[in-house]
């Protein structure tokens, strides 16, 4: 049995889908299993990474677990709690979804969000694998409304390049690590095959869609106001501002060969992701 947390999300849902397609026994944790739309044969468990008892109950009888536990600056302890719950429940192998740049002091507070969970995994005595993906290609789904309306989408990252990674590749690496003990003790930094700035991603998307994808660069003040207007705490907004600065200054201009090393094939390009998701940007 493999327990997947974050099972209805970007990475977790694809981990569930890929494991189920391979005939693995999967249990999917969700706050609302009725809305989870799980593949046939996947067992649903109700719970939440901030509710330790629910996580421990869901992990009972599982041999491996995929851990998604950080959604903001206040989740460090809950993320660590996922690792502890796995150990308590007798899980043997864990794969933790972390983030590129974790522990890099130049990333400021943002670089600490996954640190506790990573340290807990390394110290757990379990077979552990840490996945540190770069920016997901799917983040550009936040441009859908603007693209449909023909208005500029906001860009918080300036011309800073990132090794944009296809979430399907992240999920495929997670599945490999969940199934194969040879990935134990490894920390993989997962990127696409090239680095791209937001304007370069917009140009690729425009080419795929056959219409312009304009961006509107936000000043730091505009950026902060948008984050506050979205209801984020000062602490949260500070973290995202620090990350945006780091990216703008070229700190995340990084490509690795880790996807190729694990999967034995090149990482997917942003263009491939855009071609496969073009329908999401089509007018209603
Ligand atoms: N986006 C990126 O570019 C990027 C890059 C590197 C690393 N990461 C890391 O990837 C992780 C997120 O992975 P993901 O995108 O697959 O997750 P996600 O889609 O945002 O969320 C996964 C699931 O977790 C539950 N969830 C979402 N927000 C929550 C919240 N605020 N509190 C509690 N539960 C919540 C939801 O499930 P239910 O409603 O079913 O419970 C959701 O379907 C984060 O830890 C992030 O640091 C992201």
Characterise this structure.
39% of the residues lie in helices and 14% in strands. The chain has a 7-stranded parallel β-sheet with strand order 3-2-1-4-5-6-8, with helices on both faces. A two-stranded parallel sheet has the order 7-9. The longest helix has 15 residues, at 234-248. β1 (2-4), α1 (10-21) and β2 form a beta-alpha-beta unit. It has helices at residues 10-21, 52-59, 76-89, 115-122, 144-149, 167-179, 198-209, 220-229, 234-248, 258-263, 270-276; strands spanning 2-4, 26-30, 43-46, 64-67, 93-97, 127-133, 153-155, 186-190, 215-217. α1 packs across α6 (167-179), α2 packs parallel to α3 and α7 (198-209) crosses α11 (270-276). It starts with a strand and ends in an 8-residue tail after the last helix. NADP nicotinamide-adenine-dinucleotide phosphate (NAP) binds next to α1.
Number of strands: 9
Helical residue percent? 25-40%
Level-1 CATH class name of one domain? Alpha Beta
The ordered H/E elements are: EHEEHEHEHEHEHEHEHHHH
CATH superfamily of one domain: NAD(P)-binding Rossmann-like Domain
Q: How are the strands ordered across the major sheet?
A: 3-2-1-4-5-6-8
Q: Any low-confidence stretches, pLDDT <50, length ≥5?
A: none
Q: What is the 3D shape?
A: globular
| Number of H- or I-type helical stretches | 11
How would you classify the quaternary structure? Answer: single chain
Span of the ends, CA to CA: 40 Å
């Amino acid at each position: 049995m493999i327990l997947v947390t974050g099972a209805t999300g970007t990475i977790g849902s694809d981990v569930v889908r890929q494991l189920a397609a391979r005939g693995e026994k999967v249990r999917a944790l969700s706050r609302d299993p009725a809305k989870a739309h799980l593949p046939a044969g996947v067992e649903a468990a109700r719970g939440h990474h901030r509710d330790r008892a629910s996580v421990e109950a869901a992990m009972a009888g599982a041999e491996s677990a995929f851990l998604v536990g950080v959604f903001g600056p206040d989740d460090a302890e809950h993320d660590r709690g996922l690792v502890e719950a796995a150990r308590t429940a007798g899980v043997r192998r864990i794969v933790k979804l972390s983030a590129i740049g974790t522990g890099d002091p130049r990333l400021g507070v943002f670089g600490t969000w996954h640190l506790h969970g990573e340290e807990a995994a390394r110290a757990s005595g379990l077979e552990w694998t840490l996945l540190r993906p770069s920016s997901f290609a799917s983040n550009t789904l936040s441009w859908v409304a603007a693209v449909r309306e023909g208005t500029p989408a906001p860009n918080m990252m300036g011309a800073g390049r990132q090794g944009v990674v296809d979430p399907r590749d992240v999920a495929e690496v997670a599945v490999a690590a969940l199934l194969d003990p040879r990935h134990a003790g490894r920390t993989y930094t997962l990127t696409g095959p090239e680095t791209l700035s937001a304007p370069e991603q917009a140009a690729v998307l425009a080419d795929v869609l056959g219409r312009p994808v304009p961006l509107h660069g936000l000043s730091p003040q505009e950026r902060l106001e948008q984050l506050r207007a979205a209801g984020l705490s000062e602490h949260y907004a500070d973290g995202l501002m620090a990350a945006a600065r780091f990216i703008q200054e070229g700190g995340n201009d990084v490509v690795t060969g880790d996807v190729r090393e694990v999967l034995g094939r090149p990482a997917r390009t942003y263009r491939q992701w855009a071609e496969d998701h073009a329908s999401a940007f089509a007018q209603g």
